[in-house]
Every structure is written in C-alpha cells, then in structure tokens.
Amino acid sequence: MKLFKSKKRVIIEGCKDIHSIIDHSQEIIADSQSLISDMQKDVQSMQEGIDDMRKNSEECQKLSKQNLIILNDMRIVLDELAGDTE
C-alpha cells in the first residue's frame, strides 16, 4: 500500500510539473504572439516610410526635370544676350 501511495505521489507531482510546463509554454506563446504583432506594426510603419520616400523621390525627379528646363531656357536667353553684345 505504501508503494502505491508513493507512486501516486510521483504521478501527482509529475502532473503538476507537466501543468507548470504547459502554463510556461502558454506564456511563451503569448509573448511570442505579442512580439510578432509588434514586428508586424513595425514592418507596416517601415512600409509607409518607404512609400513616403518613393513619393518624395518622384517629386524630386519632377522638380529636377523642371529645373533642367529652366536652366536650358536660361542658357538660351544668355546665349541670345551674348549674341546681342557682339
């Protein structure tokens, strides 16, 4: 009978250990899910930043083209002015 009680105690302690491991695993899973959620938000924020940079780059390209046109027009005017002084 004493052996039965000892085995029963070992089984009960083993079950407690298993439950403790399960609880700890669930905490780790919850923490991991929270980290994944945070990382997804960070990735979304980075994507928005990349989109903004792309828009800014496109705007800079447009402005550069406009500046080239203006510089070319200025060159033409300066060439004409230089021709007038000859």
Helix content: over 70%
The total count of strands amounts to: 0
- Please report the distance between the alpha carbons of the first and last residues: 125 Å
Note the beta-strand portion: under 5%
Mean pLDDT: 91
Sequence of secondary-structure elements: H
Principal-axis shape: rod-shaped
Count of distinct structural domains: 2
Number of helices: 1
Q: Determine the structural class based on helices, strands and strand pairing.
A: mainly alpha
Poorly predicted runs are none
Q: Report the C-alpha radius of gyration, rounded.
A: 37 Å
Give a quick account of the main beta sheet: strands, pairing sense, barrel closure.
none
Key descriptive features of the protein:
single chain, 86 residues, mainly alpha, 2 domains, rod-shaped, N-methylhydantoinase B/oxoprolinase/acetone carboxylase alpha subunit
